[in-house]
Design goal:
Helix 5 links the parallel strand 4 and strand 5. Helices cover 30% and strands 27% of the residues. The protein has a seven-stranded mixed sheet with strand order 1-2-3-4-5-7-6. The chain has 167 residues and is of the alpha+beta class.
């Protein structure tokens, strides 16, 4: 008998904004100290407008995971050239803007399942940046085949690590 909780995936709706934002804010709040030593250009910004953009902007691939009609995690990213160039990524990559799972639902396969729903057709790699102090995230990405890569500006790399997974 499996211990996995059944979850389903779907595209988000604007009515999901508050819950998506809440999960993001609580997941990242402990890592906002990164901002104290980063330049304004490299600071982690959390606001509802950004999350709303992930929901309504067609340039993003965004998906939510839910259990019993409650959102427990979500992912958003893009392979569009204008988004990739904002993050110093190359054509053929998918930049993962966010992947967050409610802390009460971690270690149940939700994050890995979200990663498996990234559209990989004609892509060479999936790329994400994460704070160096977010050791759990780094271990999660490594467990899912990501490796640290060194193509970040020096100031940014003081507090962040770029990870990439070939597709």
């Amino acid at each position: 008998m499996s211990n996995r909780i059944p979850f389903l995936f779907r595209p988000p709706h604007i009515a999901d904004l508050d819950r998506m934002y809440s999960i993001l804010e609580s997941s990242l709040s402990q890592f906002l100290a990164v901002n104290e030593t980063s330049s304004k250009n490299n600071q982690l910004i959390i606001n509802k407008g950004t999350v709303e953009g992930y929901i309504i902007d067609s340039r993003y691939h965004t998906i939510v995971a839910e259990i019993n009609s409650k959102i427990v995690g979500w992912l958003s990213g893009s392979s569009r050239s204008e988004i990739l160039s904002e993050h110093g990524c190359n054509p053929g990559e998918f930049y993962l803007e966010e992947i967050v799972v409610d802390s009460a639902f971690r270690r149940k396969g939700i994050g890995s399942s979200l990663l498996s729903r990234i559209p990989l057709d004609n892509l060479e790699a999936v790329v994400i940046d994460t704070p160096l102090i977010n050791e759990q995230a780094i271990i999660f990405y490594q467990h899912n085949g990501f490796l640290a890569v060194g193509n970040m500006p020096n100031e940014f790399s003081k507090n962040w690590v770029r990870m990439s997974k070939a597709t």
